[in-house]
């Protein structure tokens, strides 16, 4: 376990100690340590490894997805989608093409595919100020009645008229958590972000520091 993962584990233990959250990460293989296991890959979507470990990597608008079964008492609670993301491409005009983003569906039944809600917006798009800088992407969403599954996507954005150029969008330390309130979820986001800052201070020179 690296310093980065240890820092995130510590923050989870801190939240558990205060009784603020249901802190089990419902995603399987959330940091690509088991290659692409438990994920479905489409198009140019692979797992890459560098000096900091393994990352989910997509190019040319490929994507990964994972269907996640929710606990039976989740209706009315709040789902948090969160992860670290980075991009090889930053457009000078601020266009989103090439940027990594989290996305999801609230499904009534993963086999039938009835969608109760779309999980988008908020801070789900990774907008770093520099190429290859890691930032935290996240969103908090109320779980509707009848939702049994969340389909969790790792995507690469594209603005109309500005195509992909083969640059990579990367994802790591992903999470899907269920909380009783939106406020508790946002406390967890703050702690998660502090955990990534701490890991940068401990020294991972291959990945630039997280910046607000």
Could you characterize what this model shows?
This protein is α+β, with helices and mostly antiparallel strands and 212 residues long. The longest helix has 20 residues, at 182-201. It is globular. The chain has a single domain (21-187), classed as Jelly Rolls (Sandwich), CATH 2.60.120.260. Residues 16-21 and 200-212 have low confidence and may be disordered. Helix content is 17%, strand content 35%. It has a five-stranded antiparallel β-sheet, with no helix packed on it. Strands 2-3-10-5-8 form a five-stranded antiparallel β-sheet, with helices on one face. It has helices at residues 3-18, 182-201, and strands at 40-42, 45-50, 53-58, 63-69, 78-87, 100-109, 114-119, 135-142, 149-156, 169-179. A hairpin with a 2-residue loop joins strand 2 and strand 3 (53-58).
């Amino acid at each position: 376990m690296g310093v980065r993962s240890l820092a995130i584990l510590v923050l989870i233990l801190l939240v558990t100690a205060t009784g603020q959250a249901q802190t089990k990460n419902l995603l399987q293989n959330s940091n690509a340590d088991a290659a692409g296991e438990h994920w479905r890959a489409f198009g140019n979507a692979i797992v890459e490894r560098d000096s900091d470990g393994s990352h989910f990597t997509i190019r040319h608008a490929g994507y990964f997805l994972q269907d996640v079964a929710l606990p039976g008492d989740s209706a009315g609670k709040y789902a948090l989608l969160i992860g670290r993301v980075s991009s090889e491409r930053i457009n000078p005009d601020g266009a989103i093409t090439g940027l990594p983003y989290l996305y999801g569906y609230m499904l009534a039944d993963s086999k039938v595919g009835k969608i109760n809600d779309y999980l988008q917006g908020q801070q789900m798009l990774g907008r770093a100020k520099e190429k290859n800088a890691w930032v935290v992407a996240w969103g908090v969403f109320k779980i509707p009645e009848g939702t049994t599954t969340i389909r969790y996507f790792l995507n690469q954005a594209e603005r109309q008229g500005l195509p992909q150029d083969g640059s990579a969008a990367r994802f790591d330390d992903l999470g899907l958590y269920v909380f009783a309130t939106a406020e508790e979820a946002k406390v967890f986001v703050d702690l998660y972000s502090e955990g990534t800052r701490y890991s940068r201070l401990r020294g991972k020179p291959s990945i630039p520091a997280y910046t607000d």
